[in-house]
Amino acid sequence: MAVDLGSKKIIMIHGLASKPPPDFTHHLWRKTLTENIRVSHRQLARSLDADADVFESAYWANVIPHHIPDDTGYCRKLGLQVDKVIDERREIRDSFHVGMKEKVGSFFKDRGLDLVKLLAGALSVKDDVMTDFLRETELYEQDQYIADQIRAPLENALRRAWDEGREPIIVSHSMGTFISYDVLWRFSHRKTADFRKYNDKRVKMFITLGSPLGDSTVRGLLFARHHLDHSQRRFPTNIDFWHNYACLGDVVSHQKNFNNIFYQPMRELNLFRSTKKFRSIDYVDLHNPFEVVSHAGNRNREKRNPHKSYGYLAQPRLGSWIADYLLDRLR
């Protein structure tokens, strides 16, 4: 069966700004997503291999003052760690995912991991992750010139997709999730010329990975903060499906409140095009096997970072939902 991908666009937006150069970040994200899909949809993955235009990155790290991209040596080691994540996903297939009826402790024990040690190890990377996160969120809040530059790559990618008649989805991670939320909100509600013509455009899926949007302080940074709870202007109005993914031990996405904060009030306001609950899903306590790249400063520290994007991009349910989107099975 031939797959026509000409009407699709997967827009990817990263999180914290300490990143490999744009081309390498794009390569790793595209590779991880494609290999995730390949586990169950080989022909579709072959079509993705042949059509690089389906993927687009809204890369913003290089607008941060004094940003220095990761060097070649780090990128090489990072690529090897990403390959390990892909290999595990391929080897154990859907057992990569903590099932809905599966006990979390048993899942990790079966993989030779002690849950207490795993969570303690996650806390050992907390300071590094949160220091970067807080620094960049402060910049996003206080310097609107920089904030506009951070949002611009995603805004322009969406405009291109809509102008070309494509049906876009957004795959966002960490800080990229609330950047995306602000961008979708602006396209929903702003009436200036560069937004008004897109007020009725929609994204088929909004995917948030390792998102801090459950945190009230983060929500206090957003444009929507100026509007009353449960009013239509509190939320983007242009999302068909919104799926959130949170891994066990991820210090950035530890809140489990997406249904109460977002999904239920958005359903009550009829902002999704269907009342079916699979339009909005909050996947929590997921397994992120990513091991950090070793360097002189972390040799004696915990090697797992459950916030890292690549462990999210390999999630089986993410792969199956994106495959359904590409195959026009989302209803």
Give an overview of the whole structure.
With 331 residues, the chain is an alpha/beta fold. The protein has a single domain (8-326), classed as Rossmann fold (3-Layer(aba) Sandwich), CATH 3.40.50. The chain contains 13 helices and six strands. It has a six-stranded parallel β-sheet with strand order 2-1-3-4-5-6, sandwiched between helices. Helix 10 (216-219) links the parallel strand 4 (203-209) and strand 5 (239-247). Helix 1 packs antiparallel against helix 2 (42-50), helix 1 runs parallel beside helix 3 and helix 1 crosses helix 13 (316-326).
Characteristic terms for this protein:
46% helix, 6-stranded parallel beta sheet, Rossmann fold, alpha/beta, 331 residues, 13 helices, 6 strands
Task: Indicate the topology.
Blueprint: E1 8-13, H1 22-38, H2 42-50, E2 55-57, H3 72-92, H4 104-110, H5 115-124, H6 126-142, H7 144-163, E3 167-173, H8 175-189, H9 193-196, E4 203-209, H10 216-219, E5 239-247, H11 258-268, E6 280-286, H12 309-313, H13 316-326
Parallel strand pairs: 1-2, 1-3, 3-4, 4-5, 5-6
Helix pairs in contact: 1-2, 1-3, 1-13, 6-7, 7-8
State the gist of this model:
Helix content is 46%, strand content 12%. The protein is of the alpha/beta class.
Main β-sheet, in a few words?
Answer: 6 strands, parallel
Element-by-element helix/strand order: EHHEHHHHHEHHEHEHEHH
Total number of distinct structural domains = 1
Strand order of the largest sheet: 2-1-3-4-5-6
Q: What gross morphology would you assign?
A: globular
- What percentage of the residues does DSSP assign to strands (E)? 5-15%
